[in-house]
Amino acid sequence: MSSSLLNARNPLSFLLRTFTLQRFSTTLTHVSDENKFNATLGTNPSFIHPTAIVHPNAVIGPGVSIGPFCTIGSSAKLGNACQLYPGSHVFGNTELGDQCILMTGAVVGDDLPGRTVIGCNNVIGHHAVVGIKCQDMKYKLGDECFLYVGDNNEIREHTSIHRSSKPSERTVIGDNNLIMGSCHIAHDCKVGNNNIFANNTLLAGHVMVEDYAHTAGAIVVHQFCRIGSFSFVGGGSVVSQDVPKYMMVSGERAELRGLNLEGLRRRGFSVTEIKSLRTAYRKIFMSTEANSGGFEDRLAEVEEHEDLAHVPAILEWLLSHAMIPPLCFQAGLNICMHLTDSYRPCVHPLFLQSY
């Protein structure tokens, strides 16, 4: 029997087949594999691949693209124009802001009590794991735990970022951070804005990183340590003490190596500010210029110095040093290794909000 006769007897099936072919061709024709999801955003309010598993209670914003074999849990919320590449997953009480991208294999959130909140315009790389149970043995199963991530962060492949260890704590990542491949940010860490973590940067629990810090590859930071703003940690370092603002440290047991001069120049510090920081560094840390008083006496001397106290960078530095446990000092320096018990935390505004 001829095909024309079959079409005449079954006009409806013929029309359906023709419409399906046309619809398929207009959706996927002339679209390269790497741009398929971008193309669907322009042709459909939202796109969910037939092989994806999306719970009916999940909230999906307009323009969202969910690729093959993705999983979206019942309490998940996906903001506008998010893109989930094949095999990425969103579990538990997790919220993605607008225009987030989950690359293949990325996992965000889990089914533990608590919450994972990811801001807008974040990229989570291939097989990264963000917002899962911490590795703290003191965590009690069933306790709420939290992770809050700001905007415009790039979290690269195989990175792991854990939720907090207690209901009263938060793991917080700020804005505009580049977290390269295979980094680890443990429970209750506080990371500020505009930081760069090179590959295999490992932060233990409760570590604080302020703003514009830069770590080279394969560094380890001990729990409860603090990395100051505009500082640099050299590759392969083991940081077991606090890194002061503006400083450069390196070594198997990281020691102070001087000012982060190149970093300060790149961040727009003036020549005058850099010279003043260098003078203050010598007065506080260099044994040849250090007076016989304690560390606090030397800080007070710099604060009262006519040529230094008015420099904003110096004042910020002095305030941050009304601080905490030991600093990374140069080996052999005869200075007090412990400071006052007062502590002024530097955290992202997300941490200060009430959830």
SSE arrangement:
Elements: H1 3-9, H2 11-28, H3 36-43, E1 47-48, E2 53-54, E3 59-60, E4 65-66, E5 71-72, E6 77-78, E7 83-84, E8 89-90, E9 94-96, E10 101-102, E11 107-108, E12 114-118, E13 123-124, E14 129-132, E15 145-149, E16 154-155, E17 160-162, E18 171-173, E19 178-179, E20 184-185, E21 190-191, E22 196-197, E23 202-203, E24 208-209, E25 214-215, E26 220-221, E27 226-227, E28 232-233, E29 238-239, E30 247-250, E31 255-259, H4 261-266, H5 271-285, H6 295-304, H7 312-320, H8 349-352
Parallel strand pairs: 1-4, 2-5, 3-6, 4-7, 5-8, 6-9, 7-10, 8-11, 9-12, 10-13, 11-14, 12-15, 13-16, 14-17, 15-18, 16-19, 17-20, 18-21, 19-22, 20-23, 21-24, 22-25, 23-26, 24-27, 25-28, 26-29, 28-30
Antiparallel strand pairs: 30-31
Key words describing this protein structure:
UDP N-Acetylglucosamine Acyltransferase, domain 1, disordered C terminus, alpha/beta, 8 helices, 10-stranded parallel β-sheet, 355 residues
Report on the structure:
This protein has helices spanning 3-9, 11-28, 36-43, 261-266, 271-285, 295-304, 312-320, 349-352; strands at residues 47-48, 53-54, 59-60, 65-66, 71-72, 77-78, 83-84, 89-90, 94-96, 101-102, 107-108, 114-118, 123-124, 129-132, 145-149, 154-155, 160-162, 171-173, 178-179, 184-185, 190-191, 196-197, 202-203, 208-209, 214-215, 220-221, 226-227, 232-233, 238-239, 247-250, 255-259. With 355 residues, the protein is α/β, with parallel strands linked by helices. It is elongated. Mean pLDDT is 81; it is low at 1-43 and 331-355.
